[in-house]
Amino acid sequence: MSVSFSQDDWISNSGTDRSGLVGVLDIGSNSIRLVVFEGDGRMPIPLFNEKALCGLGAGLQETGHLSEQGVRSAMENLERYFTIARGMQVAEVRVLATAAVRDARNGAEFVSEIESRFGIRVMVLSGDEEARLSALGVISAFPDADGIVGDLGGGSLELVDVRDNKARRFETTPLGPLRLGELTRQNRDELTDKIDSTLSGVLWLDAMADRDLFAVGGAWRSLARAHMELTDYPLAVIHHYAIGAEEAVRFLDEITRMGRKDLRALDAVSKRRVEKLPVTALVLKRVIELGRARQVVFSSFGLREGCLYDRLPQGEQSRDPLVDSCMDIARKSSRFSPHPEVLERWIAPFFEDVPASEQRLIRAACILSDFAWGEHPSYRGEHAFIRVLRLPVVGMNHADRVFLAYAILARYTGGIEEEGGQRVRKLLSLRRRDLAYRVGLALRLALTLSGGATELLESARLERERDMVGERGFVISMHGHQGGLAGDVVTRRIAALSEALGQEIRIEH
């Protein structure tokens, strides 16, 4: 269910029409979070994202009721979030409640109080529906996802088998850290047996064997941050961070045995998450071991994003999230209306033998090729490189992200030697780094030739030259007045790309 506020409810925002904003408010067992998205297309952009750790499910296992302190905190923060939604002129807010609310004896009373106080409707999700929406969130961010989604909330762990862009099987288990309590040396064996006994009831868990486990939820993201800190990982992006199963099990076992002092010394982990970190690590460890997962891949997309993805037409669901995200960025930051298809078509002869997985990265590079034009000329390359590494986009892994950053760096500077890039070099193979360099130089040539007005490339045809012996190189054919596009700068760009490709490029008038 969702709530649509009438126009009379809005607080004035200087006349700005923000009717395209959509919010999802998730009332979980441990936290309440409001995310406001700009629109609800294939890749909605989050404009506001805030959570409050209210602990509604604290003590639920013993009392059967929502925590009184948690309810008070929840009401206070809901007041804040609905006030913010009105101030932002959010057109629609969807309010979802999960495990703690659906399981508590006073859950219905809590929902009734929210609805009467704020004049909205709350949808209490069943375990299967919560699992399905979380899986759709992962599918929206990983178009080729093949594995098991594990969404750990405060009160439950949802497991979903995903393949071919579909959620196939669901299971909800009571393995949330608020239910399990704190892990100690004394209760370690008891908690392990309880987790194993519960997971043995998931009859299809062996479907995880040699496939990916997609980890969703704030508690598990905290584990990813801890692993990044302990391994000095060079890229602080949680989404699509992957750890091989053996390494993950060793790391998680180490976390389960850490004392509170050592855990609090982890700068990357919120102090409010520290207490539950060992038990969340134990749950993840046993899921990996019993399911025999190939690796664990962390996802920042889950229930809220799945909620928006669920209502998209099938044609929009099938769109590439990386390409759509980059187009949104380009429309807002390019000098001219972006025409990436012209760029991609023009440079295509240089990269005919590149695999499809990298062709889509080349497409993304074409889209972003002019997005840093507004930066100071002396710093365009540096800023563009760092920005691409940190863009809030999905649909690519960390190596892909570095590939795209190097391509854009070469587009602006003609090289890939950037001080800020030394640490991330190890995430990309030498072959892919060289390819990114050549892509960047090709874009540099195309945009220099056209001055950024890429429509001009339509009359400066690029073709591969061949003779009876085989391939000789490339020719740029310029006709009529387009012959005036050539010049000293273009000649230098051609020379640099020709050297990188190891093939001749010539202009034919």
* Helix segment tally: 20
β-strand number: 15
Provide the helix percentage: 40-55%
What characteristic shape results from the CA principal axes?
elongated
Structural class: alpha/beta
Query: Beta-strand level of the residues, as a percent range?
Result: 15-25%
Task: Give a quick account of the main beta sheet: strands, pairing sense, barrel closure.
Answer: 6 strands, mixed
Low-confidence residue ranges: 1-18
Mean pLDDT: 90
Query: What does the radius of gyration come to?
Result: 26 Å
List keywords for this structure.
44% helix, disordered N terminus, elongated, 509 residues, 15 strands, six-stranded mixed sheet, 20 helices, alpha/beta
Structural account:
There is one protein chain. By secondary structure, the protein is α/β, with parallel strands linked by helices. 44% of the residues lie in helices and 17% in strands. The protein is built from 20 helices and 15 strands. The strands form 3 sheets. Strands 1, 2, 3, 4, 5 and 6 form a 6-stranded mixed sheet that branches. A 6-stranded mixed sheet has the order 9-8-7-10-12-11. Helix 8 (218-231) packs across helix 11 and helix 19 (430-450) runs antiparallel to helix 20. The longest helix is centred in the last third of the chain and has 21 residues, at 430-450. It is elongated and about 85 Å long. Residues 1-18 have low confidence and may be disordered.
